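hey m, so remember when u said the tokens were messed up on ur end? i reran from scratch. heres the input so u can diff it against urs
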Amino acid sequence: MAVLFELHNVRKRYGSFEALKGITVSVEEGTMGLLGPNGAGKSTLIKALLGLLPFDEGQATVLGHRLPEAAQLIRRDVGYMPENDCYLPRMTAVQYVTFAGRLCGMPRRDAFQRAHETLHYVGLGEARYRRLGTFSTGMKQRVKLAQALVHGPKLVLLDEPTNGLDPDGRDQMLALIMDVARRGVSVMLSTHILYDVEQTCERAILLNHGGLVHYGTITSMKDDKRNNYEIKVREGADRMAASLKARGATIEEDRGALLVVALPEGQTTTSILQAAVEAKVQIRHMVPYDLTLETAFLNIIGQERESEAQASAAKES
């Protein structure tokens, strides 16, 4: 599998604040989510990969081109859909997308033809001569996607592409993103909506406080290797929880009658049934518990914060 970009000990500072802290990673082609809390460094990483922000330390290549020397070549091969609107309201959609193609080095005639084709592709064919200032939020998001695709990039960087969309508009945007990927274009999706990543991406990059916390498949991110079960009891959930804890189990979630339980290594559902007998409760529902991407994300961030707290405490002592 071809490599999209490689980072080696990459750092970026804004004064005394370190936005990227020695990131080293090799990312393969395909679809990936870029995740992290606010201030994690996601936008800084995107802009740095485009050559718009210089690194303070480290080395980086994108699609085989070295930064910062080949920044212009990189922007010819990469499409970028920004989070914020950036257009002239009096321009028509076709003028705007043509202009984006020209900025990427396309001849005027080719850019104009591709602008028509790309606007049809994103569902704005009938609106291509309308001024952008008259567009709805959903139409603005689509035209931003069109300008990112007009020059036929090998990789597109999408920053919050479903921002402001209603459920139907979001589903349509996700369907477009998945179709782009099926056509052989690699996609990196930066978003705070983890459902969007779970629906569209194969892998995820997780940043926290400027550092790389996780890179791998969505499946590996959700596989925490624990022996978890979701249990619903008729009544007496507090007694059930106490009985399970006495057997060494951990109550991961307590939602009243519904418990998410992590059993110790080596224990099976027999332990749960025995705990129910001891607590004199009736189990109405018991299934293996699969983590959602959101739960996995929170677990990884929580573990990272715990590690940071322990390291800080060790330094103080």
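this time it looks ok to me. The chain has a mean pLDDT of 89. if urs says something different then somethings off w ur setup not the seq
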